[in-house]
């Protein structure tokens, strides 16, 4: 191997290590900043700047092979406050965010869309109230969106979510809730909402639908015959 070649390899290795270090430091800072904003965070005692070297073993944090945060899984952890201080732009490798059954309110920060690899988002059983930022539609890898039992009423525009649970919220008009373009929805729950119109026509556009729950609304009018050919 030539001397020049070896130098190139060493430089590449050095750059990789540097990037990994910067990524980790950014993730650590972002998580600690969010923790500090929570009014209740007893469950997150391992999350601290002085414990940065243990990031991949912090409560609820799962890393990928490069040591970058891949999953944040904190169900039923009495997290209280908002997500406003969680800077999603710091988590380029996040694939799952599951923070269901907590006491979080308001809504996702608008830069959620920077989570370009996110496949699973579970916010169910909190009290999110504000309309979803339209940037959620730019989560091009999102497969599973769980929003069950919040106080949501907003508009959703999803490219690709296969499982989509919007049960037990305050949806009134399904037409304005989901975009006409939900091509690959397989599981769709809109039960326990406040829908009073006719059967939401956009559902017939979900070409891959196999599970549909519209129970406990006040829908009226006929169920389109076409639906029977879909749900089988
Ligand atoms: C650092 O994190 C590890 C892994 O979660 C934990 O066992 C340890 O108690 C933490 N240390 C401090 C000082 O919080
Ligand atoms: C949530 O946590 C509490 C206390 O740890 C526990 O008693 C309860 O069963 C948990 N609820 C669920 C739905 O897991
Ligand atoms: C993302 O949003 C958070 C919280 O609103 C904010 O602190 C942060 O600066 C934003 N980051 C970018 C890159 O826009
Ligand atoms: C959810 O938030 C709304 C608006 O702030 C409030 O009226 C409602 O009582 C809250 N619900 C729960 C279950 O905390
Ligand atoms: C929804 O959340 C509220 C407030 O946490 C809780 O009291 C209620 O039992 C939940 N409802 C369902 C259907 O899960
Ligand atoms: C169904 O899809 C077609 C073609 O994309 C579109 O023109 C129509 O508006 C959609 N219908 C509903 C009810 O969303």
UniProtKB/TrEMBL annotation:
Alphabetized, the UniProt keywords read: Kinase, Leucine-rich repeat, Membrane, Receptor, Repeat, Signal, Transferase
Give the signal peptide, or none. Answer: 1-25
Sorted alphabetically, which Pfam families does this protein's record hold? LRR_1, LRRNT_2
Where in this chain does the record put each Leucine-rich repeat-containing N-terminal plant-type domain?
A: 26-64
**SUPFAM superfamilies assigned:** L domain-like (SSF52058)
What are the record's GO terms for cellular component? Answer: membrane
Q: Where in the cell is it found?
A: Membrane
| GO terms, molecular function | kinase activity
Cited InterPro entries:
DNA_repair-toleration (IPR053211), Leu-rich_rpt (IPR001611), LRR_dom_sf (IPR032675), LRR_N_plant-typ (IPR013210)
Coiled coil ranges (UniProt) are none
- PANTHER family, alphabetically? DNA DAMAGE-REPAIR/TOLERATION PROTEIN DRT100, NON-SPECIFIC SERINE_THREONINE PROTEIN KINASE
Write the protein's name: MDIS1-interacting receptor like kinase 2-like protein
